[in-house]
Amino acid sequence: MIAAAAAAAALFFVLWWMLQAEESPWVPAGLAASVVMLVAAFARLLLARRVHNQRSTTIRHSHERAARRPTLDAVMLSTSRHASTLRALQRQSMAADEHKTAERHHEVYELCNEYLTGVERALHSPALQADGRVALRSGQERVRELQKHHLLTWARQSARALTHEAQQRVRLYEKVETANRALDCIDQALNICPGDEELVVSARAVRDFITSSRVAHWVELAERAAFKGYFQRAIDCYRDALYYLGRDSQDPVGNDTAERILKEIDMLRARMGAEAVRSGKDVVQN
Q: N or C, which terminus of the chain has less Cβ within 10 Å?
């Protein structure tokens, strides 16, 4: 409609300019512009009606498919359907292992959650037969192992990719934000598998990366300030680095870093004292 309005306006002024010799040139120019707007409005109405009809058809078909598709509870109560569902889930698990992407592992993890939820509901149903109950128990154990496997794989791959992405970032807040996303993935997996040693080590490594990034940021600011002769500002930046180092770091290497920073602060204070003495002598001489 915006394009049609622009075209109608352009047509109006062009016809008005061409018909200046005629009496009341704005009348035919206005009629031509009005015809353009009417055609555009009619076309828009047809397009909107077609989109509405397509959307209604899609919704109706989806409802019909959902009505024909057996519910998860009905699948779990049928031994044959349950076996077919379990085989399909195992095939998707194998495909995710071959595909080797974190998203596929997370999708299979969600499917395992849905399966286990359906199993829990079916086990409480009085309509479940004894042989079906045994099959559900067996499938439940296998799917729990699949769920744990895909959750851990997703967390490890996502954390590894996000940590690598954080290392490529330039700004500090981007590094910290991306690294925190990696920590969120690890924490989700630790809530399900709290004893996984690899996840604990990964979480510690990500936290150390965040701390080292913050310390490096403030140390760089301190070095710039010291180079420009702003010694007090440099000392303040070094103190900020010490704050993050003491709050977040649990690595023994952090103690060596803290000692180096303290030595830099002492050197800056000594330079500040020397500058003050030199300035006092200059004042006396003047």
A: C
- Which one of 44-53, 70-79, 211-220 scores highest in mean pLDDT? 211-220
Length of the chain: 286
Residue 173, class by beta-carbon neighbours within 10 Å (0-12 exposed, 13-18 middle, 19+ buried)?
Answer: exposed
Per-residue tokens: 54: 């397509």
Cβ atoms of 146 and 104 closer than 8 Å:
no
State pLDDT tens for residues 56-107.
Answer: 776 765 555 444 444 555 666 677 777 888 888 888 888 888 877 888 898 8
Asked if residues 238 and 222 have their Cβ atoms less than 8 Å apart, the reply is yes
Q: Enter the tokens of residue 244.
A: 């993050």
* CB hemisphere CA count around 13 (13 angstroms): 5
Distance CA 188, CA 155 (A): 8
Phi and psi at residue 216, to the nearest 5°: -65, -35
Q: Report residue 83 as tokens.
A: 């076996």
Q: Return all residues near 157 (Cβ < 8 A) that are at least 6 apart.
A: 100, 101, 102, 105
Pair 187, 193: CB distance under 8 Å: no
Residue 227: both structure tokens together: 């180079």
pLDDT band at 53, cuts 50/70/90? confident
Contact between residue 105 and residue 153 where contact means Cβ atoms under 8 Å apart: yes
Cα–Cα distance for residue pair 270/265, rounded to 1 Å: 9
**Long-range Cβ pairs for the range 220-226 (8 Å, 24+):** 222/264, 226/264, 226/268
Cβ pair 70, 124 in contact under 8 A: no
